[in-house]
Amino acid sequence: MSDAAPASQSAPQPEPQYATVEQQAEAASFGMWVFLATEVLFFGGMLLAYTWLRANHPDGVAEAGRHTTVVIGSVNTLVLLTSSFTMAWAVHAAEHGRQKALTRLLSATALLGLLFLGLKGYEYHGEWTEHLVPGLNFHQDGPHARTIELFYFLYFLLTGLHGIHVTIGIVLIALLAVRARRGAFSARYYTPVEVTGLYWHFVDIVWIFLYPLIYLVGRSGP
Question: What are the structural domains of the chain?
């Protein structure tokens, strides 16, 4: 049996400020792209600070990088890449009006996001016990202690803000899953799913940049 929306479902109506549903979808998509552009600038500033630190203190950054838990970072990368696939598949299901598949794929994406946060929280706990949290619980000896502290300041700033973005994405996707279960979307109207998909892919792309910068630096050295 097909899981498509019933043919008798009334056609979606645009908000009063839009002439058509298509125009509303275009405006929503454009707005999300503008928002993501500002987010690129936001993360870009912090990544620039990291680049400066690495260029001027390469040995200290390499030593700091060896303190990171590469296994958890690698698993979390796989988790987010998988969630990006399920999100893309969800958008495809929405395009074809497959309500049951859409609900399941959105739920799977949200669960993968929760798994990511759980693993990250476990990693944060390990860094707390190793005294690697600047300003609260940092204690490292050696000539590169100051650089390691700066590295972990940027580490917690970047991964913490990324985690906030993941949390927001999980909430949005979970709400979409509830709406999809109630039949709120169809092949003619799935703009919220598409726009949220753009946001989630951005979150994944940010992590793809963070993973080698944080976890792989210093691993190839002696």
Answer: 46-216 (1.20.120.80)
